[in-house]
Design brief:
By secondary structure, the protein is α+β, with helices and mostly antiparallel strands. The protein contains 9 helices and 14 strands.
Length: about 325
């Protein structure tokens, strides 16, 4: 489904009452390293395991050593957080570790494709109280996903992080959220195990990939019935940046309202598509106009197929990207 769908609907009444904001500057395109050699499950899982261990040890140097010297690490919706080169990545990790008493990275599901891998994880811990500010420590736990590519030595060449900063902000202090907005509760672990799925290029994977592509095409054309046609009767949509899942009927209602509010939505060619086992992972880039301001949204979307139908769909995104581009003005980011 379109990234930021539920947040845009939440903000509709606020935006209608607000003064129009000047157009947001276009986001910088994601950095890329071209076609990589086929990634293996061993390379990806080794990186994920070592990164998790470095978080547990609170060792930014050990974590940064898993990245190439000229690696680029980015965060969806926050281009100012782009770190270029291993030293910059280490400094960013050191800042993150300093702000949490017991920061941990719990690895969940992994999808391995020919050009990239996607690693689900939960970033959790105890946020330290800001120096000189009232209030105690706060537990946090946010579900996210890395999109990673590797160099020939098995180090990360490029990383894109999809993690909802608004959830993080709300878990630290709900008063900093826009009125009427809620966020998911603190995640304490991965919800659906840590299976590793590798793209094999099977006929079933290809069929699932083609069906998923037709859904995106129908969404771009705003054909709601066509987009929902492959969904099973018990289909469930989970946005990890939203507090509750939606069934098929509720998803249809939300998509219909979204298209009425955003009539020029289009999807760009996805940077990454992985059809692995019974799931299809798509890195989504969406362009639209909201309240006369151009916006660009990013997400990682996963569709699980059963019997040729989509049984479940979930998405990793950063709602702060929406807030930053269209208002009301977002709260200050908690700097990880």
């Amino acid at each position: 489904m379109p990234p930021g769908l539920r947040l845009l609907m939440t903000l509709a009444t606020l935006a209608a009452c607000a003064d129009p904001r000047p157009p947001a500057p276009a986001h910088r395109a994601w950095g890329g390293r071209g076609r990589q050699a086929e990634l293996t499950a061993e390379v990806t899982t080794r990186f994920a395991s070592r990164l998790s261990a470095a978080y547990h040890a609170r060792d930014p140097a050990a974590a940064a050593a898993l990245y190439a010297e000229d690696a680029v690490a980015e965060r969806a919706g926050e281009p100012e957080e782009r770190a270029e080169g291993r030293p910059a990545i280490e400094r960013a990790l050191a800042r993150r570790f300093s702000r949490y008493r017991d920061l941990r990275l719990v690895v969940g599901r992994i999808w391995v494709g020919r050009e990239a891998s996607v690693i689900e994880h939960v970033l959790g811990g105890t946020r330290r109280a800001a120096r000189g500010k009232p209030g105690g420590e706060r537990p946090v736990g946010v579900v996210g996903a890395f999109v990673v590519t590797f160099d020939g030595a098995g180090r990360v060449a490029a990383q894109r992080l999809y993690m909802d900063e608004v959830t993080l902000i709300g878990q630290i202090d709900r008063r900093r959220l826009p009125d009427g907005m809620s966020v998911p509760e603190v995640a304490t672990g991965v919800a659906d195990g840590n299976a590793v799925r590798v793209a094999r290029g099977t006929p079933a994977e290809q069929r699932n990939r083609e069906t998923s592509a037709r859904i995106w095409a129908a969404l771009t054309a705003h054909r709601v019935d066509d987009a929902l046609a492959p969904m099973a009767d018990d289909y469930l949509y989970v946005d990890f940046a939203a507090p509750t899942p939606l069934d098929r009927a509720a998803t249809r209602t939300l998509v219909t309202r979204f298209f009425a509010a955003v009539p020029d939505l289009v999807f760009a060619e996805p940077p990454v598509v992985i059809a692995a086992g019974d799931e299809v992972v798509t890195e989504v880039v969406e362009h639209a106009t909201w309240n006369r301001a151009p916006i660009t949204l990013h997400a990682v979307d996963v569709r699980r197929f059963a019997g040729g139908q989509v049984a479940r769909e979930w998405q990793y995104s950063n709602y702060r990207e929406v807030l930053t581009q269209l208002g009301p003005a977002p709260p200050p980011a908690p700097a990880d």
